[in-house]
Every structure is written in structure tokens, then in C-alpha cells.
Amino acid sequence: MKKIVTIGEVLVEIMAEERGNGFLEPITLVGPFPSGAPAIFIDQVAKLGQPCGIISAVGPDDFGTVNVERLKADGVDVSAIAVIPDAVTGSAFVRYREDGNRNFIFNIRQSACGQVSLDQGAEKMLREADHLHVMGSSLFSDNIVTLIRAAIGQVKEKGGTVSFDPNIRKEMLDFPGMREALVHIFENADIFLPSGEELFLFTEAKEEEAAIAEILTRGTKAVVIKRGAEGASYFDTSGETRVPAFAVEEIDPTGAGDSFGATFVTFWLRGVSPEDALLMANASGARAVGVKGPMSGTSTGAELQDFIERHKGIRA
Ligand code: ATP
Ligand code: MG
């Protein structure tokens, strides 16, 4: 089986219990929950029984332990998560606003994950990797951008594949060099997994069909568009495969895109048809939105099969 590797932030998420406008008065918080887009992604890959690992860093503290133990228990190779003395594990405090948007206080760039490096553990993991997944959210410092570019070079050189979920926060687009880094990763990705406006990040075209056509002429083998409650589509040069979402109540959208992407990439690497891979990925996304907590909604293959059985005929 192919080994999937990702690089990026491991952090804890601490959530406000009630909705509101931020953190200007004392409120009830719940957490820490293991989190970080690449961490959620790789946890979902592991739960499907695929060999996988993450290159990251934490501090020698309980927040780091919460994450590492969780990933390890689910089957992720954690040998390339460095524990950095004198550094603190990344964190995000989040509060939902009344309109459902999220308001964050992040400690990522200044945390242990700001000091990730291609040390021996990371180099070994890259040698074992058949596939590298990159999250736009992980491009939070020059250091990690350089590292991700090097990792892409190594994996591609030995015939491996790359997937890219732009998953970028708006304020990150203004970082110096960010645009160029994104374009480089995009141009090296075999699968591109945008949602919403992210489809147009690299295109002249401003409309879906033309944007897809443009992307497929630039070396990308496949585009997977995540459409939230509308499901998802897969495009390659032979056309579109669209699969509707499952009808579920949205409790917490955090992690849906990451779980979806992990499930899609895993089944794609196993050679499953785009339609079946989308069905599994939609089930994975739907299960993720149905539970509170960023990594609480990751699923095993058996849980996905069972969910699909129970929801037959009641697609959204
Ligand atoms: P994220 O907010 O995690 O970055 P995203 O924007 O990358 O998410 P979405 O399209 O929101 O991705 O969600 C990914 C997938 O999860 C969807 O394609 C769909 O399969 C499933 N999903 C998301 N929201 C819902 C929903 N409300 N009902 C059913 N399925 C959903
Ligand atoms: Mg997303």
C-alpha cells in the first residue's frame, strides 16, 4: 500500500461553548481538542488503514502529548513529529459568530510548528513517501514554505504524487512570497482540491467550466471541487463526475474539507473509480460536520460503509 505523508501544523483547538463576537469577556471554553488541518487529514487517512505519517513539531507539553498520542493511537506514523525543547505546542481559540463564521486567535507561526525542519526523522519519512499532501494553511512561514517545496521536489523526483488543498486563510495571501509559493505547489499538484472561490486562485477564467479547462492544461491530472451541502465533483480530461452530499444536520463544519480530502486521496491512490471515491469522501465529510470537535469526526472504513448503508436514498 502507498504511504501518504503530509507536512504542517499540529495544534490544539479550544472552543467557546456559546456563539458570539470574540473573546473580550470571560466565557466558557471547552478543549483542548487535537487539531490542525494536516493533522486532521492524516488522522483520517490512518483510520482508513492506509500507511501514513506527518512531519511537524510540538512542544514538550500536554497540548503536544494530546495530539501525538491521538495520532499514534489512530495509526499515524508520528516519528517525524519533533518535540522542540523551550517551544510551546500550537493552539487556536475559536468562537462561532451568530452568522456561523469563525473567529480565531491563533498561535501557530510563533509555536513549535514554526520550527519544523527536515531533520533525520523527516528525511526518512520523505524517502518512504509515495504521496505528499499539502494544505495551504500550512504555508504560514518562509521556513515551512521552503521545506514544503523541497519535499515536493523529493517526492516527485522518485515518481510520487502530490495533492493540494489550498485551504488558505485570506490574510495569508498578503504574506510576502505567498503568491509565488502557492503557484509553485499548484503547478506540481496531481490533484487539486479547492472549495468555493479557491477554484479561481490560479486561473484567468472566472467561471467554473473555463477554470477547470484551464487548470487541466497546466499539468494537474484531476480537480476535485468540494461543494459543502451540495456534495462534490471530480474533473479530469474526460469530463465531470458529480456526487450529491448526504443529508445531515451541520453541527460543526470544522474538519469536513480535511476529512473529505483525506478519504478521496486514499481511495484515489487505491485505484478506486472517481464516483466511488467521491461517495466515500462525501460520507466522510458528512460524518465530520455531524459532530463537534475538529478531529472528532474522522471515520474508519467500516463507519463510512455503515453510514452509506443507513443513508441510502436520502441524499441531500
Ligand atoms: P473546510 O471548512 O473544512 O475548509 P471545505 O470548504 O474545504 O471545508 P466543504 O465543501 O465545506 O469543504 O466540505 C467538504 C465535504 O464535506 C463536502 O464536499 C461534502 O461532501 C461534505 N459536507 C460539508 N458540509 C456538508 C453538509 N452541510 N451536509 C452534508 N455534507 C457536507
Ligand atoms: Mg477547505
Automatic annotation (TrEMBL):
Name one molecular function that GO assigns to this entry. Answer: kinase activity
Q: Could you tell me the superkingdom of the organism this chain comes from? A: Bacteria
Q: Which UniProt keywords apply?
A: ATP-binding, Kinase, Nucleotide-binding, Transferase
Pfam annotation, one family: PfkB
Quote the SUPFAM superfamilies the UniProt record gives: Ribokinase-like
The residues forming the signal peptide are: none
Where do the Carbohydrate kinase PfkB domain residues begin and end?
A: 1-297
What the record says about family reads: Belongs to the carbohydrate kinase PfkB family.
Name of the protein described by the UniProt record: Sugar or nucleoside kinase, ribokinase family
Q: Which species does this protein come from?
A: Afifella marina DSM 2698
